[in-house]
């Protein structure tokens, strides 16, 4: 609650500042604070985007054929909705797979589902994300209990942290699909020393910051089965050696799913 209130307060200050300094807003745009996470809006018919957000602000409606950094940022946030067994490419190109992911995101939050990302879709994203760009129900701290700066892994610290962010947005989608019950992370990013200390594999995806071990309110099999729908190429769970007490998900380059006790 504190995180959400702080984000709304900052958004209010930013909007007020726009009014004070006379920054231009496209005619017909509405500058408004984000919606709370439990509220939705009807459709995305307005073409101009005016809402401001502390993490990232979209300034145009996005649909098939669009490209650019704003498409990449959208893809990161809808990558948990690619369809069963699919992985959405984060490539800055708004193609049919991105449109499908946007549609599933819209359906998940009760929006008009047309695959076009406009003000109402962005408002829902704004309502879900914190100022540091983590999603509502996950934090960078819980993705990294190894050190404070994401260093010492198989990739640079900035890349590891970015990978952690992308993991969290997929987990946010998975959490939504599983009835909003908590998904608890027992291990995320590991430096080489942290990985060695827990006996991790020398090529563990944890070293890249793009893996999470899940425990908590769902059965391990339920977690492994649900992960198939949310863009994870790597899924390891009960029946796979060393994974009977958690479910592991990651973003490896090609699919490897193994949870034999769960039918995977």
Characterization of this structure:
The chain has 2 domains: 2-128, Muramoyl-pentapeptide Carboxypeptidase, domain 1 (Orthogonal Bundle), CATH 1.10.101.10; 140-262, 2-Layer Sandwich (Muramoyl-pentapeptide Carboxypeptidase, domain 2). 35% of the residues lie in helices and 8% in strands. It has 264 residues and is of the alpha+beta class. The model is unreliable at 1-42 (pLDDT under 50). The longest helix is centred in the middle third of the chain and has 21 residues, at 157-177. It has helices at 2-21, 69-78, 96-108, 119-128, 140-143, 157-177, 192-197, 220-227, and strands spanning 183-187, 211-216, 234-236, 247-250, 256-258.
CATH homologous superfamily heading of the largest domain: PGBD-like superfamily/PGBD
Number-wise, the strands total 5
The CA-CA distance between the termini, in Å, is 37 Å
pLDDT below 50 for ≥5 consecutive residues: which ranges? 1-42
CATH class label of the largest domain:
Mainly Alpha
Summing up helix and strand content along with how strands pair, one would put the structural category as: alpha+beta
Q: Kindly estimate the percentage of residues that lie in beta strands according to DSSP.
A: 5-15%
The major pleated sheet works out as: 5 strands, mixed
Architecture (CATH level 2) name of the largest domain: Orthogonal Bundle
Q: How many separate structural domains?
A: 2
């Amino acid at each position: 609650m504190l995180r959400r209130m702080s984000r709304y307060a900052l958004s209010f200050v930013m909007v007020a500042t726009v009014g004070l300094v006379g920054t231009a807003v496209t005619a017909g745009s509405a500058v408004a604070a984000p919606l709370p996470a439990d509220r939705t809006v009807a459709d995305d018919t307005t073409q101009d985007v005016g809402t401001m957000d502390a993490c990232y602000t979209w300034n145009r409606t996005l649909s098939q054929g669009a490209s650019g950094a704003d498409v990449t940022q959208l893809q990161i946030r809808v990558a948990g909705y690619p369809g069963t067994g699919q992985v959405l490419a984060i490539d800055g190109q708004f193609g049919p797979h991105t449109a499908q992911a946007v549609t599933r995101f819209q359906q998940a939050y009760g929006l008009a589902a047309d695959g076009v990302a406009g003000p109402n879709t962005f408002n829902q994203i704004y309502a879900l994300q914190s100022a540091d760009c983590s999603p509502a129900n996950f934090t960078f701290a819980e993705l990294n209990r190894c050190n404070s700066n994401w260093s010492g892994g198989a990739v640079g610290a900035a890349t590891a942290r970015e990978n952690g962010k992308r993991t969290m947005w997929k987990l946010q989608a998975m959490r939504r699909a599983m009835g909003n019950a908590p998904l608890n992370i027992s291990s995320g990013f590991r430096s080489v020393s942290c990985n060695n200390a827990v006996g991790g594999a020398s090529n563990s995806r944890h070293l890249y910051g793009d893996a999470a071990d899940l425990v908590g309110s769902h059965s391990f099999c339920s977690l492994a089965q649900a992960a198939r729908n949310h863009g994870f190429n790597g899924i390891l769970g009960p029946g796979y050696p060393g994974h009977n007490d958690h479910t592991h998900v990651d973003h490896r380059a090609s699919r490897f799913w193994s949870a034999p006790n769960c039918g995977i």
